[in-house]
Every structure is written in structure tokens, then in C-alpha cells.
Amino acid sequence: MLAGRTLASMFYISVLWIFVATAQDFTPSSSWRKPTITISPEQRENIASAALEEAIDHLNSAAQFDGESYGSAGALYSQMAEFDLLFNQTKYRDQLKSYFPLAEQARSSFLDEFVYGYAATKAYVAYKDEEFLTYAEISWNSGNEYTLSDDNVASQSMPFKNFPISSSCQGISMAGGTFHSTDPNDATLVGLGTGSFLILSAALYEATNNQTYLEAANKSLNFIHAHLYNVQNVVQDQISAMQNASCSTSNTIFSYNAGLMIEGMAILASITNDTSTQQLLESTVSAALSNDIWQGQDGVLRTGDAKLVNALMAVYNHNTISSAMQNYVKDYLGVQYNAVIEMATENNSNIYGSSWIGPPSSKFDSFNQTQALGVLIGAISLTNDTIPNSSPTSSPASPSATNIPPGPKPQSKSGIIIGSILGSLAFVVFLGCMIWFFLKRKHHNQRDVQCSPFGLDSDQDLQVQTQLPLSQAASSIPAIHSHLKTQTTAMSQSTPSQPSLSQQHARKGHQTTDSSGLLHLSGPSVLLSQPHLDTMIPLPMQVNNQETSGQLERNIQRGNPGNNMTTAELVQMLNERLQPGQWTDDEQPPEYPESSSGR
């Protein structure tokens, strides 16, 4: 029973290990376009700096882009601070100090655009200036007002919203969800709002170590995981917070929602070292980088997404992941970088289009420019020599070759993972069966030893097997045969009902020889035989007279089994073995005529 339980435990542990080991596949695809960045960090710095200056030149006097969304300028502020942080410089500090007040005047408290708070946090980390931290806190407070608290959920109401709040969905609290819209009648909790508040909270906690921000970040993360994840670990876009909306969700997915979640988790995992956060991070990265909705089989994001790129840079730089995953992320970022500089711009214009697969655009657009800047700045810190790169490098593709029909679609990673799991399970089942077989066989052999006619103690670890060198066994047999031939022949004739020695051999034992030159003697009665002998000689493993048995054993080992035993004693011993209980101590053996040899 113990062996069975041990075997079952080994089996379940092995299966669990297989599922953990094969759950994520971080092998860069061989179909990815140019995953290796070949230009130097200095060249990358120059390319990013030129694109950054191009964007700054398009800001108006209010530090905004004419005709563009309010958040576009905030994205640029963040990239200016990131660039200085990367090179430990203060090139853009004074400009940013003048930009943030103007942006806050344009929209009080940076309402519903947490990108300004995130940018201010980056600036605070880069320059250690408390003024930037103040703007970051203003932005966080405005976001917190539109985030469902435990009190809001308990009262099923919230300021600024004109509808009853659903306290839970599928039995899980709605606390932690953030409204992106300030419209009092808009009940949607979207990934963009909650994810943006997540990374702002996580970044502020990383910068200040204030526990309030950590608690807020964890609530945002738990909400997204509980209410917006689908079964493929992809973040869906929105869920209704209205009480009578039956927790309806939108199946629409965008890469930036995954990016926001990934970056928030990357920051938290590096701070807390929480295993569950780390595992969820790996699952989300794997799902995002293999999703064919926003990227082709070449791995290039069809439409630029700085949020996903920023998230992957956070994963790469926080260094809380395995080397396999880090290499995987690095190669993916290399694919995006090479696509942007080769297919999203042309003629050294420093202007980047919305499509990273081409054709490039000659018209400046603030949104397109900041999306490209995400990868241009991020790729500066990527290295190609500190982490072994095993993925193949595709041949360069020219912008004019973008209309070439794609090749056959590679095998699905899901299929590879499932196949690996099934194959591994089959191996574990086979291994388990082999272990069970050998345990069962060992148990059976032990039971045979305990029940054998040799009288072995059950606590002795003995095998009923004797090995004699073939030369020694052969030299012993003629002496035994010569001494006992007459006696055994007469015994066979006097007891016709008793089986012959050859019949006993067939029923009770056998001999084999192996390549080591050993004669294996096994079975209840160990029998010696040679092809030239006409008699099988039983060697009793146990006799009633211990002294006689000992003498016989010692004499056999010396090659002279009968020197110290009389014929009567030997015949008496043999007859007692062949006819147990029928021989008495005072009974004398019959007279035998002397053989021709004089014995």
C-alpha cells in the first residue's frame, strides 16, 4: 500500500510539473521578421533624438498638439523624461517644468488622462524634483475619485455617476475598477482607464514607497484579472458597472489593454516578488505576443502601440523574469524596432506613420509619432550580447516588398503546447507503469523468499541463488558423481514411486551459464549438471543435521564433498531429503556391492 501511495504521489507531482513547465512557450518564432538589432546604441540614440525633436517642434504655445487629443502631449512628456532618465541627463527638465502647468490649465487635474500623472512620475524619478511629484499626485487623486472603492461597492453608489453600482460580478467585488469617462451616465469600466490607473499607482509606489499606492495598484490588478481576462489570458476592453446590466462585457480586445496590465504587473512583481503576480505576468505576455489579431506571422504590430512596447521594456528592464522570457521579449522588441525604422519612415524625414508594416507617411501626426517613439527610445537599452540569442535572423526586407503574399502559417503554438503535454503525460504513465512493475516484482520476490522451503528468516535480505565459477563447479561434479553414483542408482531402484532425479530437476530447479563464466544454480534444490554426466546431483540447501550440512558445504567448496562423510551418512541424509519422515535414525542402509573401482 505504501509503495502504491508513493507511486501515485510521484505520478501526480510529475503531471503537475509537466503542466507548469509547458504552460508557457517562450521560443521566438522562426517566422519573425528581423529580431536582431544590428545598429549600435549610438545610432539608436541619434534616431530616437531626431524623432523626439521633431515631435517637440510641433507643440503649440499651450504645450499641446493642434487638433490632436489631449493625451498625445502627455505621452510626449513621458518620452522626454524617459530619454533623460536613460542617459542620466537633464536636457528636457526645464521644458517639462513649463509644460505641466500649461497642461493642467487645459484640463483641471489632468482629468481622465492619467498619462500626465505617469509622465510626471517619470520626471520625478529622472530629476528628483518634488514639483513633478506634486503633478503626479494631482493626477492620481483625480483618477482615484473615479475608481470604485469598497465603500462605493457596499453602498452601490458613487459620486459623479447617476446609476446604481453593481456590488459584484460572478461573486467577485467590483472594487478597483476605474471609469475612464467623466460622463455621469457612462457605466463602462474600461481597460484603458483601469490599466492606466494601475501603472500610475504602481509607478508612484515604486518612486515613493507609499503603501496607499501599492494597495490601489493591487486592487486595479485584481479587478482586471477577475473581470476583464478571457480564457486565453487576453485582456478584454470593458465591463458594465450598472446594477441591472448583468455584468455584460465586451469581447473586443486591444493590444494596449494587455500592455497596461503587463507594465503594471512588471513593476509590482519586481517590488513584491509575489509568485502569483509573476505567473500571471508570464501568461499575459505569452498571450499578447502570440495573438494574431494585432500582429502578423512576421511578428510585426500592424498598427503601432507604444503602450505594449513600453510594457515589454518594463518587463525586460526590471529583470524579474527567466532568461528564456527575457530573450523572447528582446527578440520581439527587435522585430518592432527594425520594422519602424525600415517600413514606417523614409528618406530620413524623422516622421513616422501609423502602420509599422508600411507604407510610410510624409505627414506628421502626433499620435503616430509618439507610438513610434515608444519603440525608438525603448530599443536604445536593448543588448544583443549579454543574453544568448538562439533565434534565427531573417534576411532584411525592403519597404517595397511589403506586398509579397505571406507564406504558409506556422504551426499553432497552442498545438505545440498541447502536443508536448500529451507526449509528456504518455511518458510519465509509461514511467509509472515501469516503477509499479518493478516494485510489484520486488514485493513478489520477497514473498517467495519468506515462504520458501529453505527456512529463511523473513527479515533476511537473501536471494535464493548460488553462483559458482564454472571451472570450480565442473571440478566438483566428477567427485560427487563418482562417490554417489552407486548409492543414488540403488535408491532409485528401491523406491519406484519416487520421481527420478531428472524429473525433480525439471520440476524444481534449473541451471544457466552467462558470459561471465559463472554457473548459476537456482531453485529449491540446487542441481549440478554437465552434458557428459548421466546423473543430476542435488545439493541440499538445508538438512536436519546442521553439522553434516556444514561439512558437506565446506567439502563442496574444497572440491571434495565426500572425504569426511561415510557412505551410510550420506545415503541417510539423501534418503531423508527424498523421503522426509520415513527414515529413522536407527535404520541402517542396505548393503551395496563394491564398485569396480574398489570403492
From TrEMBL:
Presence of the UniProt keyword Transit peptide in the record: no
Classify the source by domain of life: Eukaryota
The residue range of the signal peptide is: 1-23
Q: Which organism is it from?
A: Dendrothele bispora (strain CBS 962.96)
Q: Which UniProt keywords apply?
A: Membrane, Signal, Transmembrane, Transmembrane helix
* Bias type Low complexity, positions: 388-404, 492-504
Q: Does the keyword Iron-sulfur apply?
A: no
InterPro entries cross-referenced by the UniProt entry: 6-hairpin_glycosidase_sf, Glyco_hydro_76, MUG_Protein
UniProt region (Disordered), positions on chain? 388-410, 485-524, 576-599
Which Pfam families does the entry link to?
Glyco_hydro_76 (PF03663)
- Return the protein name: Glycoside hydrolase family 76 protein
What are the transmembrane regions?
416-439
Gene Ontology biological process terms, A to Z: carbohydrate metabolic process
